[in-house]
Write a structure and sequence with these properties.
- With about 150 residues, the chain is an alpha+beta fold.
- It has one domain.
- About 25% of the residues lie in helices and about 40% in strands.
- The strands form five sheets. A three-stranded antiparallel sheet has the order 1-2-3, with no helix packed on it.
- The longest helix is centred in the last third of the chain and has 21 residues.
- The mean pLDDT is about 90.
Length: about 150
């Protein structure tokens, strides 16, 4: 299936890229997608379009959305509200606790074990070996340019 021509493309290593396609039909909008191993599809673009209101804690639309191609960089951090990632916590040892309801009635609860899911942030860093390889390739390319500048 033809998806469109790539208009812009950015990569931060294997399985970490952002692209924009131009649609076949000029009446349609361009499509931007982030593909990152370990990051839920759509969470990065949600981060670019929305923000957490510091006063209410609610997720609200940004007055000026962030440019995904400027935000897609090393040290990318998405807070739990935007990452859509969950982790599991297990408690394997028995425990007892007391809960008080809104009427002041106390109940003692004993659990043998339990588990909980909770939201966690997502962070992305470029591996030092990858950064070194890119720098090495850039130096090689510059040396080749310097070598051939008088020839071409």
């Amino acid at each position: 299936m033809w998806e469109g021509d790539y208009h812009r493309f950015r990569t931060l290593g294997a399985k970490r890229y952002l692209y924009e396609t131009l649609p076949h039909d000029p009446k349609e909008d361009a499509h931007i997608e982030a593909v990152v191993a370990g990051m839920e599809k759509g969470s990065f673009l949600k981060y670019c379009k929305y923000k957490k209101d510091p006063d209410t804690g609610e997720i609200v639309e940004r007055e000026h959305p962030l440019d995904p191609f400027e935000e897609f960089k090393d040290d990318l951090y998405l807070s739990p509200e935007f990452s859509n990632k969950l982790t599991t916590s297990y408690k394997d040892k028995p425990f007892t606790f007391t809960v008080t309801d809104y009427l002041g009635k106390e109940v003692t609860i004993h659990e043998e074990c339990c588990c909980a899911l909770y939201a966690i942030p997502f962070s992305m860093y470029m591996d030092a070996d990858f950064v070194a390889l890119v720098a090495l390739l850039a130096k090689k390319k510059e040396r080749e340019r310097e070598f051939y500048k008088d020839v071409l």
